[in-house]
Design goal:
single chain; alpha+beta; three-stranded antiparallel β-sheet; globular
Length: 65
């Protein structure tokens, strides 16, 4: 399954921190935050957990801007 999430990640550094945190905490084969998109879309390929878990995790990391 592919997870697609709207975020407010605003910098390349925050994007890298989030991707590292996600890769460490969950089994994901590929994830990316599109900083050029107005919704700063996070896409996660091969998502094996509930979307709510990802949302809660990202909110809990406090990686926003």
């Amino acid at each position: 399954m592919i997870g697609v999430f709207k975020t407010n990640i605003g910098t390349p550094e925050a994007r890298q921190t989030l991707i590292q945190a996600l890769s460490t905490s969950f089994h994901v084969s590929n994830c990316h935050v599109d900083l050029e998109d107005c919704d700063k879309v996070l896409r996660i390929a091969d998502l094996e957990v509930a979307e709510q878990e990802i949302v809660a995790f990202v909110r809990g990391t406090r990686i926003y801007v």
